[in-house]
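Module 6 notes. Inverse folding takes a fixed backbone as the condition and produces residue identities as the prediction. Think of it as a translation problem where the source language is geometry and the target language is the twenty amino acids. Below is one complete input and output pair. Work through it position by position during the lab.
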């Protein structure tokens, strides 16, 4: 099978194809981020990089493409963004996917994107000739990540829930010194006084801004981490072996900070997700974020941590894609059986 991956990123598609047992003869990747390309070439050195999608042509590929896949930039569609839709130059790149689909006429196509307004979704569905399948990565990983998948791959069903929790992907007993919540920061000025009279069990985090510790009135040690939240109660309580979203900690509109069972969705722009245990509050490591995306441990370990976090936020949940690609392997098996019987 020959594959053309648009907006290839760190090539999660190749990991998914491998997991699905699909043999790839030639893999063409369109990507412009040098860090993502470095990770791709380090893991899959036979990848053929073809550059900016706007300049990719049928003549350049010069091969029959069996699978055209991609996750076009989503910043113009996301509910977390400004929702400029097709006026956003990044989201206009979707039409490059449409162009190459028309020119190359692949047997299979596959497009991933974020949840968006129905009117935007309908435009994509019109051009691709199908409705999207909605799948939450939480079924196969420890991350809540709802995505839309447009494809002509047959037989797609919802994945079986594997029951993976955030605590299951946490690495125990390592030196997390570089990931501990910065000593110079406090969770929020609101909690720089003893909040026991506010019904918070007498617990306060970082009252002097010097140490990431949480104490009780009686000095019994760390009990509960109290974090401000834009809810009627005004805060959330984080217990041992629970995660917390401290992205934009001073925001007065953020809610859903507690990550009790599943992580919030990784993003490309910024995320500060922490794990609370062993008397410390520390950021999820790049390996743990790889696990959230069901990417092999240390797959991205060829660039800086900041770049690793960014590309993981941009990436795909591999096991969701591998699940969808089972439709291809099943069809291949059926065709082989028909040939045997002919």
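Target side of the pair, the amino acids:
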């Amino acid at each position: 099978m020959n594959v053309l991956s648009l907006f290839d990123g760190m090539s999660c598609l190749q990991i998914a194809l491998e997991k699905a047992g699909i043999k790839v003869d030639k893999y063409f990747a369109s990507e412009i981020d040098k860090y993502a390309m470095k990770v791709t070439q380090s893991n899959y050195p036979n990848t053929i990089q073809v550059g900016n999608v706007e300049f990719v042509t049928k003549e350049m590929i010069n091969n029959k493409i069996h699978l055209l896949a991609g996750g076009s930039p989503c910043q113009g569609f996301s509910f977390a963004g400004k929702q400029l839709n097709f006026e956003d130059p990044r989201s206009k790149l979707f039409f490059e996917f449409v162009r190459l689909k028309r020119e190359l006429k692949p047997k299979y196509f596959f497009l991933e994107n974020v949840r968006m307004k129905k009117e935007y979704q309908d435009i994509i569905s019109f051009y691709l000739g199908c409705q999207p399948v909605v799948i939450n990565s939480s079924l196969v990983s420890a991350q809540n990540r709802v995505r839309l998948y447009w494809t002509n791959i047959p037989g797609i069903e919802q994945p079986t829930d594997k029951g993976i929790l955030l605590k299951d992907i946490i690495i125990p007993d390592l030196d997390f010194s570089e990931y501990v919540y910065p000593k110079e920061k406090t969770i929020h000025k609101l909690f720089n006084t003893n909040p026991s009279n506010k019904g918070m069990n007498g617990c306060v985090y970082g009252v002097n801004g010097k140490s990431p510790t949480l104490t009780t009135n009686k000095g019994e040690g760390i009990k509960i981490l109290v974090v401000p939240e834009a809810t009627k109660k005004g805060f959330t309580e984080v217990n041992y072996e629970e995660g917390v979203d401290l992205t934009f900690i001073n925001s007065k509109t953020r809610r859903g900070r507690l990550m009790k069972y599943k992580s919030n969705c990784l993003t490309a722009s910024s995320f500060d997700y922490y794990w609370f245990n062993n008397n410390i509050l520390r950021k999820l490591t790049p390996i743990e974020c790889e696990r959230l995306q069901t990417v092999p441990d240390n797959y991205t370990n060829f660039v800086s941590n900041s770049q690793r976090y960014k590309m993981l936020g941009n990436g795909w949940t591999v096991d969701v894609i591998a699940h969808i690609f089972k439709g291809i392997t099943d069809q291949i098996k059926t065709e082989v059986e028909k040939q045997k019987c002919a």
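Reference fact for the lab report: The radius of gyration is 23 Å.
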